[in-house]
Amino acid sequence: MDKEKQPRTTRRRRLRWIAVLVALFGGLWYLVTDAYREEEKELRTQLREAVKERFPDESAAFSRSFGLFRFEPDRAASNEGPAERGTVVLVHGLDDPGKVWRSLAPELRDGGLEVWLFQYPNDQPIVESATFFFAELKGLKQGGVDRISIVGHSMGGLVSREMLTRPEIAYRASARDGVVPEVATLIMVGTPNHGSPVARFRALAEVRDQVARLTKGEGSWLGGILDGAGEAKIDLLPGSRFLTELNRRPHPEGLEMLTLAGVTSPWSEDEIERWIEGRRREASDDQRAQLDALGASLGSLTRGLGDGLVSVESTRLEGVEHQTVEGTHLTMIRNLTKDSPRVPPAVPIIVDRLTAPER
């Protein structure tokens, strides 16, 4: 009997040691990369550019899924009908497979708005996404659109702010010269204007994004890199160079702005504490300090102070109208199932704002 137990005991010990090593390696990797964010970001960009150069055909094919696309609620219907109340562009966030507008886009269309969806390599640096957005807006202007509103979910709000304020892009001068449409309104939903500490933990969301692309026939075996090599998550961390530079700039003159924040977290404080404590047992002193800081950040997303991914305080911008709604990072803007009769609380606010008679 003792001889039978010995192999099992040995296997359990090996599994425990493997778990310890994985935890230690993960903690060490977090500490190193957090200390050298910009260096990591540059290495990721170099990897992405090398892959694009090595596989030009795959890169070109994959890029065809990006750009501005008119929202078509009925694929059999013509997409040439004139907009009665103007044009709105919807900009998704990090690792979003395109479902975030499932509840909002049809309501905007029913309200008489022409709706466009901006699809972009959302894991690349936000600066590159903003530059691509600006280039796509030139085509919209050439198609006869003179004035638009923008709704950005999560990182989509940052892409939009970067496009509107980056000096090298020069949106204001281009709009004045008739190169791009004038942006009248920017509505940001769950946008981490001051960052989110959970941006580091985006692996599962990236898998979801690529699986969704594959089901739509837009995927690639290189999609996880061609879609961006993870540079955006570094831009999204609190105190990042990107956010520091963006938040130093003044808001565009004459632009109506609104931020919406969710106040229902999918996690409880007890769940967060148990998760952190489970990892502290095998961590070093330095790693425990990092875990405690992470636990405090995650805790700020509970108690009605956040949506589970972004804290309410992170969404705020000085001088910008701010409202809170019930819901998580996703459920405040869309339903989780197509057939749900529920109305996500951010949807009527956005529709009313963009379809008001005085507009």
How are the SSEs ordered, and which strands pair?
Layout: H1 2-35, H2 37-54, H3 56-63, E1 67-70, E2 87-91, H4 104-110, E3 114-119, H5 126-142, E4 147-153, H6 155-165, H7 171-176, E5 182-189, H8 203-215, H9 223-226, H10 231-235, H11 241-248, E6 256-262, H12 269-280, H13 285-299, H14 312-315, E7 321-325, H15 346-355
Parallel strand pairs: 2-3, 2-4, 4-5, 5-6, 6-7
Antiparallel strand pairs: 1-3
Description:
With 359 residues, the protein is of the alpha/beta class. The chain has a single domain, classed as 3-Layer(aba) Sandwich (Rossmann fold). It contains 15 helices and 7 strands. It has a 7-stranded mixed β-sheet with strand order 1-3-2-4-5-6-7, with helices on both faces. The protein starts with a helix and ends with a helix.
List keywords for this structure.
359 residues; alpha/beta; Rossmann fold; 7 strands; 48% helix; 12% strand; globular
